[in-house]
Design goal:
- This protein is α/β, with parallel strands linked by helices and 488 residues long.
- The chain has 3 domains: 96 residues, Udp-n-acetylmuramoylalanyl-d-glutamate--2,6- Diaminopimelate Ligase, Chain: A, domain 1 (3-Layer(aba) Sandwich); 225 residues, UDP-N-acetylmuramoyl-L-alanine:D-glutamate ligase (3-Layer(aba) Sandwich); 151 residues, Mur ligase, C-terminal domain (Protein-Tyrosine Phosphatase, Chain A, Alpha-Beta Complex).
- It has 16 helices and 23 strands.
- The chain has an 11-stranded mixed beta sheet, sandwiched between helices. Strands 16-17-21-18-19-20 form a 6-stranded mixed beta sheet, sandwiched between helices.
- Strand 7 and strand 8 form a beta hairpin.
- Helix 12 runs parallel beside helix 13 and helix 15 packs across helix 16.
Length: 488
């Protein structure tokens, strides 16, 4: 596409006459990924300024650059240089344009919220596949198109990669996709260029306040997903959540769902949760139909209901929905079973916030009468304010709590554990351990177990690395637990 045609989608941007015929083959915001002929968008990040890497992008073959300011130094740039006030927005808009607006050619479902995004989006992807024959997925556990599966380095990738993935779906004849949209992505315009046929808001509880500063800022970021709907598209909102109740009043058209069975467009008329799975009777428009899922935990009632409500708004019938969710045997790292022939259950979950941890432990209490041995931790270089609350919840709801490292990053693991112990002590718990080494913490849980216990390992879920300092070391809770349990 000629630069003048591509840049026309950015209001106010002018292309010098001499550069109008420059051909652009793609859009990229990571200088390390630039290929010859692409337009490089210089995005200012928290740790690095894209403008500082423009020379590298040009050396790699960038045909033009977009930035919010002129390059430093007296020498003129060797390629056309366009100025736009928000390069992050530009990245999404331009990437969508050069790929032919793939979101507009797909049935696209977007899911946001503190907890439940991955499970809800996974269920929606399965429902879309049952309805259309194939579907794509973009989320925490990976990015999947018709031709490839990519490990996810973040829940929602940067805008150029999103548009590239969506374009692959279109090119390969995959008609639909489900996408997790994080609050970071919404704040940083990664989803710009996407338009959704339906959006789901699961809930909002404390998380990422190191980034958003306060809950109102966090809510404002999440709310932006509703502004990315296609004309007339519905937002499906958890009416039992206080912030969901706000959305019901502020962002029509909104469809409500209630996992607690309160008055809503979709409600759980009844629900049963045990170690065999979750059964929900969905009441909607005067009719009741049943969902039977192998997924574990009371919180899956909300995820099943939200996914089902979104699917109905997309015109998918209840029988197709029920068949699809019955086939989702697990969501990686979400109350995922570890089975190596041991005499007690081992469950691995991603819960890494106070609310998620409390919901997790309450769900396990409902599933079994066994005593709970909990392994959990809090990440370093992140919101310190959630550490003591998580310690208090662990001490109050687990029979034996073992506090350990999550991803300590640059922080001293023992310092993190001291913050967590404030909450453990406040809970009045008499049985808790602090073991900084995560493998040793899991080993202790296994050694303390017997047929009357259940081991719950929380915090990392599907993750396969542990970040210590600046290095991501191989570590998978599921593999470590399986290895240690198989020896007992």
């Amino acid at each position: 596409m000629r630069l003048v045609e591509l840049a026309a989608v950015l209001p106010g941007v002018e292309v010098a006459p001499a550069a109008r015929e420059v051909e652009i083959s793609g859009v990229e915001s990571d200088s390390r990924r630039v290929r010859r002929g692409e337009l490089f968008v210089a995005v200012r990040g928290a740790k690095s300024d894209g403008l500082a890497h423009a020379a590298e992008a040009i050396a790699r073959g960038a045909a033009a650059v977009v930035s919010d300011r002129a390059p430093a130094g007296p020498a003129p740039p060797s390629v056309p240089w366009l100025r736009f006030a928000s390069p992050r927005r530009a990245a999404g808009i331009l990437a969508a344009r050069i790929h032919g607006d793939p979101a507009g050619k797909l049935v696209l479902a977007g899911v946001t919220g503190t907890n439940g995004k991955t499970s809800t989006a996974t269920l929606l992807a399965a429902i879309l596949e049952a309805r259309y024959g194939s579907s794509g997925f973009i989320g925490t556990t990976g990015y999947r198109t018709g031709r490839r599966a990519v490990d996810a380095d973040r829940t929602t990738p940067e805008a150029p990669l999103i548009q590239e993935l969506l374009a692959e779906l279109v090119a390969d004849g995959v008609p639909a996709a489900a996408m997790e949209v994080s609050s970071h992505a919404l704040s940083l315009d990664r989803a710009e260029g996407c338009r959704f046929d339906v959006t789901v808001f699961t809930n909002l509880t404390r998380d990422h306040l190191d980034f958003h500063r306060d809950m109102e800022g966090y809510f404002s970021a999440k709310r932006r997903l509703l502004d990315l709907r296609k004309p007339g598209a519905s937002a499906v909102v958890n009416a039992d959540d206080p912030y969901g109740a706000r959305l019901l009043a502020e962002a029509p058209p909104v469809v409500s769902f209630s996992p607690a069975g309160e008055t809503a467009d979709f409600r759980a008329a009844s629900a049963r949760c045990d170690l065999s799975g979750t059964v929900v009777d969905v009441e909607h428009a005067g009719e009741t139909w049943r969902l039977e899922s192998p997924l574990l935990g009371r919180f899956q009632v909300a995820n099943l209901l939200g996914a089902a409500a979104a699917a109905v708004r997309l015109g998918i019938d209840p029988a197709t929905i029920a068949r699809a969710v019955a086939g989702v045997s697990n969501v990686p790292g979400r109350l995922e079973r570890v089975e190596v022939g041991q005499s007690y259950p081992i469950l691995v979950d991603y819960a890494h916030t106070p609310d998620a941890l409390e919901r997790l432990l309450a769900a396990v209490r409902e599933l079994t009468e066994r005593k709970i041995i909990l392994v959990f931790g809090c990440g370093g270089d992140r919101d310190r304010g959630k550490r003591a609350p998580m310690g208090e919840i662990a001490g109050r709801l687990a029979d034996i709590a073992i506090a350990t490292s999550d991803n300590p990053r640059s922080e001293n693991p023992d310092a993190i554990l001291r913050d967590v112990e404030v909450g453990l002590s406040a809970s009045g718990a008499t049985k808790y351990l602090k073991i900084a080494d995560r493998r040793e913490a899991i080993r202790s849980a296994v050694e303390l177990s017997n047929p009357g216990t259940v081991v719950v390992i929380a915090g990392k879920g599907h993750e396969t690395t542990q970040v210590i300092g600046n290095e991501a070391m191989p570590f998978d809770d599921r593999k470590v637990a399986a290895e240690l349990a198989s020896r007992t």
